[in-house]
C-alpha cells in the first residue's frame, strides 16, 4: 500500500458494499420460497468444494437488522443486494408471493431508515428451479418470465429502490453455469451456451421496459470485465486475445449500447429475432463494472474446442482465490470502456471490487486483514486515476460486506469486510472495515 495521500473523490460519489441473496440470506424454505438452481446444485454431491450449501449461509434473512446496523456504522451511502427470484415467484411464474416481498420491504425500509440507498439486483444467478426444468436461459420464454418478475418487484418496491440492476455478471452465468459446468445449473455446452447470452440480454431489455413503465429508475446492469493480457506476440496470439475479449467483454456490452453483437459472434437461426437488438439497447442510466483481475490469453493448441487458451499472469501478488492482484487493470479497463464506446457509454459505477484472504480472529478476537486494505487502497487509486483521465465514475462498491457462501467454493473463501463465524453467526468487523469507514469519511 502506497503511503501517498489518498486522492479526493467528488461530493456525491456513491460509496457502497455488495452482497447477493443465495450467498448470505439462508432461510431457503422460509415464507414460501421455492428452490433455485443453486439449491439443486449445492445439494448435488461433489459440486461444492467443502460439501456445504447456502441453506443457512449468513442467516441474513433473520439478521438483516444487525447487518444494516453494520452498514450504518461503515458510513456507506448505498447497499447493493440481490432479490431472490424464487422468494418472490417460487416457480418463476404467476403472482408474487407476498411473504417473500415482505422480507425485501423490511430490508429496504431498514436501509432507508439508516440513510442507506437500496440498490437492488434482480438476478444474481438464482433462477427458480422450475424455470430451469422448462429450459432455463436456453429457452427464450425465460426472458419474458424475467420481465414479469421485474414488474412484480417494481410494483412493491419501486418507490424506494434508488438504483435497479437487472442482471449480475451474465458472462459468468453463461460461461461457468452453462459452458463449463462449474456453477449452477452445471451444463457443459461450451459455445452451444451462446443462446444463454442472448436470452439474458433480451430479459434485461424487457425488464428495463417493465421498470420504466412503472416510472422506476434509474436502471443499470452489472457486467464482469477483464482486460486481456497477451502471453505472446504472434498473429495467432493476437487473434486469440481478440476472440476472448469479444466473448468476455464485448458480448454483453456492444448490444447494450446499440452496436449489435461483435463480429464473428454467431447464433443459431431463430435465436436472435427481429426487434430483439432494439429491446436490448434500451438506454442505461449506469453501467455497473465488476472487476477482479485481467486474463492472460494465448493461442490455443491445435484441436482445442476453444479459439484461445487462458494462462496464469506471473509477477503479481495473489489472493486466496489464486487471482492476481492488478489494481492498474481497473484503470486500464475503465479507460478502455471510455475509448471503445465514447458518447454511448453511460456513467460507470464499480459495482464489485474485492478479494478473498484467509482471515481468522487472533487470540484477542481481532481480525486483521492488511492485504485487503492494500487491495482496496490500490483499486481506489486506480478508479481516481481513470477519473483523472476523463472517465465518468460515480460510485464504488466493495465485494463484500460479509464473509459468505462463495458459490462452488462453499465457505472456503472469505471476501468480507466483516468476518462471519458460520457456526455461531457472530459478526466481527475486520481492520479493513475500519479502514474503509475512515476512507468514506474523508473527502
TrEMBL record:
Q: What class of enzyme is it?
A: hydrolase
- So where's the catalytic machinery, residue-wise? 169, 352
Q: What is its EC number?
A: 3.2.1.21
What is one GO biological process annotated to this record? cellulose catabolic process
Q: Where does substrate bind?
A: 23, 124, 168, 292, 399, 406-407
Q: Which PROSITE patterns match?
A: GLYCOSYL_HYDROL_F1_2
Q: Which UniProt keywords apply?
A: Carbohydrate metabolism, Cellulose degradation, Glycosidase, Hydrolase, Polysaccharide degradation
Q: Where on the tree of life does the source sit, at the highest rank?
A: Bacteria
Recorded GO cellular component terms are: cytosol
Q: What's a Pfam family this protein contains?
A: Glyco_hydro_1
- Record's catalysed reaction(s): Hydrolysis of terminal, non-reducing beta-D-glucosyl residues with release of beta-D-glucose
Which one of the record's GO molecular function terms can you name?
Answer: beta-glucosidase activity
Q: Which SUPFAM superfamilies match?
A: (Trans)glycosidases
Q: Which family does it belong to?
A: Belongs to the glycosyl hydrolase 1 family.
Name by which UniProt lists this protein: Beta-glucosidase
| Provenance organism | Micromonospora eburnea
| Taxonomy of the source species | Bacteria, Bacillati, Actinomycetota, Actinomycetes, Micromonosporales
